[in-house]
Structures are given as C-alpha cells and as structure tokens.
Amino acid sequence: MTPLAQQVDRARDVLRARFGFDDFRPGQLRAVRAALAGRSALVVLPTGAGKSLCYQVPALVLGGLTVVVSPLIALMQDQVGIARARGIWAAALTSASPASERAAILRDARRGGLQLLYLAPERLVTGEIISALRAIGPRLLAVDEAHCISEWGHEFRPAYRRVGLARLALGRPPTLALTATATRSVRDDIVASLRLGLVERVVGSFDRPNLHFSVRRVRDDEERRDALLDQLRPYRGPSIVYVPTRRLAERWTRSLLVAGVAAMPYHAGLEPAVRRGVQSQFLSDRVECVVATTAFGLGIDKPDVRRVVHLGLATSLEAFYQEAGRAGRDGKPARSVVLWTAGDLKLQRLIVKDDHRLDPLLRYLDAFGCRRAILLAHFGERLEHCGGCDRCEKWARWLGTKKTDVARRVGV
Description:
Elements: H1 3-19, H2 26-36, E1 41-44, H3 53-62, E2 66-69, H4 73-85, E3 90-93, H5 99-110, E4 116-119, H6 121-124, H7 127-136, E5 140-143, H8 163-169, E6 175-179, H9 184-193, E7 200-203, E8 211-217, H10 221-232, E9 239-242, H11 246-258, E10 263-266, H12 272-283, E11 289-292, E12 307-311, H13 317-324, E13 334-340, H14 342-352, H15 355-365, H16 371-378, H17 390-399, H18 403-410
Helix pairs in contact: 1-3, 2-3, 15-16, 17-18
C-alpha cells in the first residue's frame, strides 16, 4: 500500500470516528486525496455537500496547522464551536478578539496546540499574521466561500484578492479553495488570483433534486403579501424571506407579524448583538421566519429550512441560487419561491448598475421552459431530469406527461 493510500485509510478512520460518516462522497474524496498528496484543488460542491470536511479531515491526518480563510465572524465562531465539539483544537482570530486572546492563540499555534485557525482575509494579509504564520509553516490553507475572490462573483470581497499574495508569502502551502456556486469564469478567476497554477478541479453537480423552484409575477404588494402568506401559513417550518433593502426587511416583518407569522428582521443596520440574537432564535426554532437582506446567510448552518422566498430580485443568478440553496440542506423536500413586480427590476438596476449581471436572472424569471435547466446551464451543467419546477408542472398538465420528462421535450 502506498503512503497516500495509507493516509486515505487514516482519513476514512477519522471521518468515521470524529464525524460519524461511513465514507466520503466522491467529490469530498477527490479533494481530501489532493490535500493529503500535497496538491491544491478548487472544490465547487453544492450547499449541504460537506465542503468543510474536505479540509477538516486532512488537517487531522496531516498534523500541524491548517489555516482557514472565512468571510464572517459569525460563520467562524460557528465553525470553531462545531470543531471543538468534535475534539478538534480550533480557534478564530477576529477583529473582536482582544489583544491578549490573539497572543494566546498564536502562542498555541506556535507550540503545536492548534489544528485549525480561522481568519478573515483582512486579518490574514496583515504583516503581523503573515510573519507569525510563516514561522509556524501551515500544512494546509483552506479558502472558504472562495467565490468572494472574484469580481464576477456574487459576493465580491476586495480583501480576498490579496489572499494569493499572502499564500506566496507563506511559502505556497497546498490550498483548497471551496465554494458552492461558481461559473466557469469565476472558477478561472479564483485559480488565477490564488496563483494555484495547474490545479485539480473538483466540480460536483449543481442540481438540488429536493428543491422545488417557482416564480410568480405579481401586480402589487397587496397581491405579493397574499401570495407570501399562502406560502408560509400552510407549511409550518423554518423559512427565510429575502428582500433587497433594510427598510423592506422591517416593513415585511411588521406585515407578517400582523398576519400572525412569528417573524424577525435581519439586516446590517441592526446592532451586532441584535443580529446575533435573531440568528440564535432562528437556529433554535424560537422564531419560524427571518425577513432578511443578503447580510443573512453565510453564517447560517440550519439544515431544515423548508422555504426560501425572494420578495424582489437577487443581484444575480449566482446570488439567487446561493440564497435559494439555503433551503432543504437536510435533503428533504423544500421550496424556492420568487414573488416579483416590474418595480423590483427598476430597484435592482439602481443597486447593481450592471444590467449584464441581471440578464441571466431575468431569463430564469421569464422562463418559457424548465427553470432548473436554466439554472444548471448557467453553471455549465446539462439537465438530466427536472425534479420539480412550476414550469415543468405546468407543461406536464398541458402535455399529459410526467414532469420529469418535460424538460427534454420543452427545452430551455
């Protein structure tokens, strides 16, 4: 047995003992093998596919320090808490960490007492951190939510563009760049920005068979309110309602509360303690619906969200799919619903400025054929069959056939 095969066997043992899974999924295994072999990889796997295992398991097998770049403090704190619950030595260096805590974390890392260190990109690229990490010599670098690197991605974060330079300063450690949604051009941009060269590309299917897609164009907010209540009232379970602005988050929350739906707003204008409180109540099922701007999502690890409703338009088709994909991460049936008006398009054009980014989203909204086919084609994937969308259901009624066969007959 080769040394790599032995390490892969050890990785499977770790997976079973620490995480409770019998074996890796195909995409996970390819990423883990690359990391154990000292190779870099771009890992594009859908929401709920277990991307964090791709770097957590190799970190335990390789030993030493694995550095994880992550975009949000809330997300890092959640990841650290989950890792520690599994007996993994993990910590996060954030802007909220006092100087004494930062010093203690780096001291633990130097002494070999830390396995996972989470950092925001802004912190990673500082001279102090680069100097400290260069002395330690990380065995692996993981860049989470890697679509934030690309200017063509839906959540571009300028500091992510400097991670590639930090990687060079750290001696080019093997790197895993991970994301759930990235078009071919975004994937190329991630690889170029991180200076990964001829890198292994692990791209899983973007299809979410358990997720049903539907779109309804409404005349006004009164019709939209009725349609929203039709979605939320009969189907109890955690729901996220996305809106374009903070003002709309507050307004639609009030509307739902009046209608008897337990809802809370979430947006960047709220105090951090308030946002944490909303997140905590949603995760613990004390509130059934969050009405949120795009500030809500990356830090949320809640597998049983049953509905994601967009009241208005997302900033791009990639952003829409990322947000819609927060429903049904447990693999059980879930729904993505868009309720929009012509006025929403005018508002989003003021926000986005670049009409070309909205064009694919508009093709999805105005679809004549299968919505799932349009989504998958945008990410370079051919549809095998439609597991459920309103267009295919409509065509199935007209044609008198099964909805899973409709996409082939109608096309995009």
